Structure formats: structure tokens, C-alpha cells
Amino acid sequence: MRLEASIQEIKGIGEKTKQLFAKIGVYTVGDILLHFPRTYQQFPEPLASGEAAGEGESACAIRGILRQVPLVHRGKRMEITVATAYRQEAEPVELIWYRMPYLRSQLKPKIPYIFYGKLLTEKGRQKMEQCAVYNEGQYAALRESLQPIYGLTKGLTNQMVKKTVSQALDAVEFPADLLPGFVVEREKFPGEEQAYREIHFPETFDRLLEARNRLVYEEFFYFLLCSQLQQQNQSAVKNNWTFPPVAKDDLVERTAAALPYELTAGQRESLDSLRQDLRGAFVSQRLIQGDVGSGKTVVAFLAMLDAVSQGYQAAIMAPTEVLARQHAQTFGQMLEEYGLPYEVVCLVGSMTAREKRMAREKIAGEDGLFVVGTHALIQDAVDFRQLALVITDEQHRFGVRQRETLTKKGASCPHTAVMSATPIPRTLAMILYSNMRISLIRELPANRLPIKTCAVKTEKRPTAYRFIEREIELGHQAYVICPLVEASEKTEAENVLEYGEKLRAFYGGKISVGILHGKMKPTEKNRIMESFAAGEIQVLVSTTVVEVGVNVPNATVILIENANRFGLAALHQLRGRVGRGKDQSYCILMDSSKGEKVAKRLEILNQSNDGFYIAEQDLKLRGPGDLFGVRQSGDFNFRIADIIQDAGWLQKAAADVEKLLKEDPGLVEHSHLHEYARSFMERNTYVL
Ligand code: ADP
Ligand code: MG
Description:
Elements (H helix, E strand, L loop, with lengths): L14 H9 L5 H6 L4 E3 L18 E5 L6 E4 L4 E7 L7 E6 L4 H4 L6 E5 L1 E4 L2 E5 L2 E4 H9 L2 E3 L8 H14 L9 H7 L4 H9 L4 H30 L16 H8 L6 H14 L6 E6 L5 H14 L3 E5 L3 H17 L5 E5 L5 H13 L3 E5 L2 H4 L7 E7 L6 H9 L6 E6 L5 H7 L4 E5 L10 E6 L3 H13 L3 E5 L14 H12 L5 E4 L5 H12 L5 E4 L12 E6 L7 H8 L10 E6 L5 H11 L3 H11 L25 H17 L7 H13 L5
Parallel strand pairs: 5-8, 11-16, 11-17, 12-14, 12-15, 13-14, 15-16, 18-23, 19-21, 19-22, 20-21, 22-23
Antiparallel strand pairs: 1-10, 2-6, 3-4, 4-5, 6-9, 7-8
The structure holds adenosine-5'-diphosphate and magnesium ion.
Adenosine-5'-diphosphate (ADP) binds next to helix 11.
């Protein structure tokens, strides 16, 4: 069976299971093999003699012997096998199996076995149902192994995924080695097939690590190879746009001078670089990296103004509709305020068909236009006219392929820029964005006071609410962030719907409380966001939909519920929603955990407002045990690799790809690598 074969070709996978798998992005046999375990579980050590299992705990293992062969009862609907396991210095345990009469001939008396299952107490007697039975040797081997735990969806069990993976492993023909020989030799990597086997069903922790190393390397290798191949196709594209050299008192400069603030050095440098790019001989790609609140939007606006004032179109794409609308509004206001005779066209999913058509017609027919939108911009058929510059805001939410489609639009290739707040070290950024030039905005605007941050336990909630009330009396606004939309049985965490009610009750009509979450219709979300921006809503209870880019400078407090459930990078992004104006801002981290361990982690946010520092410290606090737990920088959605934790592999892979392409630029002698690179690009949409 080939990797590209449909998942349905695996025995036992019918239409229904196929659809469940589709929900987790698994369509082919190759996909299921790439559905790596989220984490692993180990079989527990057998209970010591005399040790009792705690009630309601997860499965445990007991050592015991049978004094006689099991008995089989013929029940009405099935056969029931029963036996008693006698333990040393502990109560015996009743064992019950349904539909497994053959155990009677398999289990022998007087031989020590390990029984593994859930221990229940019924009428003072302990019992285990459907437990697994091992001899000492078998169980010792199992203890070494790690059991995969997969990402699931409703209706799909871990057992089903395990079984499917196992069948796929046996059925598939693995391609010839997908890494250059010199790499495999140098690193002594396990083979392709072994790596896949051990990542899913590791026999030991060491072998798991070996397998993971190979797959991490391989993912980086192909990511980098693909981006180099793309670049070979792209970087020599001539720039067709003719921009006059920057005049001393041009419109962009005059507008910058009219701003109520002075641009920071980083903003200035980024803007100048972008403007030079527009005048370069080749089409450019630039990354603008700047922490939350560093003022990337105005840089985008001014660079776009440069293009628009020369009669070209310039577009900015945002990851969310809320953010796109916000940009459209900000741009519109600036154009009006500075008397600039240009227009903003907004194109987002929630517009009516008629509105969309009108926007598209404008984009197809008019020169000198600011275009603002979301994915809708790319996915729908949009005919740009004279599109000279495309800026992607918070691009780490977009895929490589999506970006490409836009780049192909219009007769000539536009210059592209990406604005990102993801704090990755510069050395890594240069590798990951090897096809881009990088500008860094290091500093925050000078008028900013550092956000005061504190972590408190939940009994401090009333104090926090009164603190928010005081800020609101001063004319400010507040965010409250909850992890969930609505109450959930599975997860114990605050939810927006109930919390909104609770806060309304607490403030008793004195303060207007609004709610916002991802399950709302886009138009409803926009309405809420606009009314918060206008100051009509004073406290906004929201999920993390506000995480990226939303700018309401009058908001000075953000209270984050269940802060312990978020990664530090996410908390830092959330915190960046305040501290955007001249007033002192505050971030209250509500820690609902019991112990002190979390407090130490949250303390890092108190120490620093610097995203790079926070990412580094967060990493230091994690031990090797977290390797398969929380992802360090999930933003990049690599399947298995983690750019921070696996930075060493990233660097090696970069050097190897360079070497390979130098020796064999067209990959003539490595055609199977070339072929796999193509399918790799088809399969993965990396979001950088
Ligand atoms: P981000 O980099 O997170 O996208 P924004 O572009 O949303 O940040 O800017 C945040 C706020 O800072 C905005 O209200 C903007 O008007 C303001 N701002 C931008 N540049 C400066 C500056 N040089 N001095 C003062 N305020 C600025
Ligand atoms: Mg922004």
C-alpha cells in the first residue's frame, strides 16, 4: 500500500470512521502515520504487597496467583469467566471477563500473573473487569514501552487510532530513504520504517528519542528544502513597479511628521527598508518582527501609502475578521485626518454577496487603493489591478500555500511583507524565513509605561473586580479572558457565557458588560468589538479571540482567568491587549491551580514585558519530561518539530540543505527527495 492510499483501504475502516478521521485531518495512510502521539503513557508498577489501590483511580496492576482454573458461566447473552486473584498480604480480587471463555484453558493456577485493569470496590470486595493478564516477563517488557495517546475527536477512540496506525505500519511500503545518505550516516538515524514504528509504539524511551530525532530532522529538512526550491523559482523575479526615488518632502514623510507621535527607531528603519524594497530591482519579501504594541500597523499604513500614492494598489491581510475591520477603520480615519485623497476597500467573509461584489469590482477596476481583508481576499476570486505590495499581519496564522496564491494574482508579482509578534531568536528567524529580509522593531513607543502584572489565587476575585471598577470610574475599560465559551463537563475552567452573567450580577447594572467568543456569528462579533472600541461596552468578557492584534488603547486592565492553563507566550500576547496608550495598565493573572509550581512560572511575566525574554525563561523552566507535553511554540504548527526545543536540529538541517543544493542544485541525483518535497508541500501548510 502506498502512502497516498486512502485511509479506507485499511481493513475495517468504513465510511463513518473515514469521516471521523477526516475531522482530525487524516485522509491517507501517510496522514495516519503522521498523526503523531500527543503524549505517551507508561504501564504502572504493580502494587506492592499489601498496598491497596485508591478508589476511582486510573488502571493499576496487581500481582497475584489463581488457586484454581477460572470458571465459565453461561449467562443469557454471553459467557462470563470468573476467577480470584490472591495477592500477598492483601485482599483477594475478583476477576471477571465477558465473552472470553478461552481464558479458562489459558490461565494456570499457581503461576504468578500481573493483572492490569481498573480496580473497583463493590460491597466491600475488590474486583477487576476485563483486565489484561501478563506474566512477569511480558509485563516487565511492557513497562519499558510507552503507550501512545493520540489527539482525538468525538466518536474516535484512542484504541481505534492505535489499531489503525498499527495496521497502516504493517501495510505500507515505506519509500527509499528520504534523507541524504551523508546525513543518515553522520547522525546514525534509525531507518524510515523503524522511526515511524518507534514514534507510535516505542519499545523504550531511548528508542523513542532516536525516532523522534529523525522525524524532527526530517521535518525541518523538507521544510527548508521546499522553501529553498520555492525561492529558486521566485527570487529572480524582476520588479515591474516603477517608483520614483523618495523625494525629500514626499507624502509619506509629511504624513509621518503629522502623526501625534514620533516613530521609534525600529519603526523608522522598517519603513525605510520597505520603501527601498519597493524601489529595488527584484521583488522582495520582508519580515517585520516587533513585539506586541510596538506599532507595526502604522508602519504598514505608511508603506502602503507609498504604493497607493504612486497609483498602485496595496493590500493588508489579517488573520481574523475583527482585526481586518479594525485595520480598515484605522486606515480610514488616518486618511481622513491627514487629508489623504485615497480610499480603503474592505473585503471580509461576513459581508453580503452584494457588498463583496462591489468591493471586488472596485479592486478590479481602480488604481491607488488600500485593500484590507482576511482569507476571503485570497480564497475568493479577487482580481487585483496593479497590486504592488501585500502585507500580512500576524502572518503566523497563514499558510505558505495561501500566501503563494495571492502572490500569483495580478500580472506582476507584488512585494510582500509579513508582520509578526512571535518572539523567536534572530538566528532561528533567519533560518526559518531564509527567503526573507528581516527588520526588527526592538523598542516599544517611548510613552508606554510597563504593564503592571500580578498573579493571584481565585479567592482574590472580589478584590480584582473592585480594582476593575475603579479603573472604569477613571474612564477606562477592561478585558476579562476565559478559556471556554460555555460550561463543559470535561474541562474545569471559566466560561464566557456564565462569567458574563456573574459579572453583570456583581456590578448590578453600574457597568456595562459585553461578551465575545468564537462561536458567535462574524457580524455579531464585529458589532461587539465596535461597541467595545467605542467605549459603550466597559468590560469585555471574551475568549482568546482577542489575542491577536486587537487595539483598544483605552483598555487598561486585563484579567485572565485560569491563567495557569495558558502558555507564557499566549499570556504575553493576551497581556499585549492593554498597555497600548499612555495610561498605566494592569494585567491580573488568576491562578486557579492548587500548588505553588504555577506561581513560579507566572512570576516570569511579572519580571518582564519582553517577549523574547519570556520565551527563553519559559523554556528554561521546562524539563525534558515536557518534551511531549505543551508545545513551546505551537504558532508554527510543525507536526513534530519544535523550533525552540529542537533549534539544534534546525541549524543542522539548514546547513545540510545548503550543502545538498550546492552539490546538486537541480536535485538531479536526488530525484526521490525532489519528489517527496513536492508531496510534502501538498500535505503541509506551515504557518510562519
Ligand atoms: P502592534 O505592533 O502590536 O500591531 P499597533 O500597531 O496596534 O501595535 O500599535 C499599538 C498602539 O501604539 C496604537 O494605538 C498606535 O497608534 C500606537 N503607536 C504606534 N506607534 C507609536 C509611536 N511611535 N509612539 C506612540 N504610539 C504609537
Ligand atoms: Mg498588530
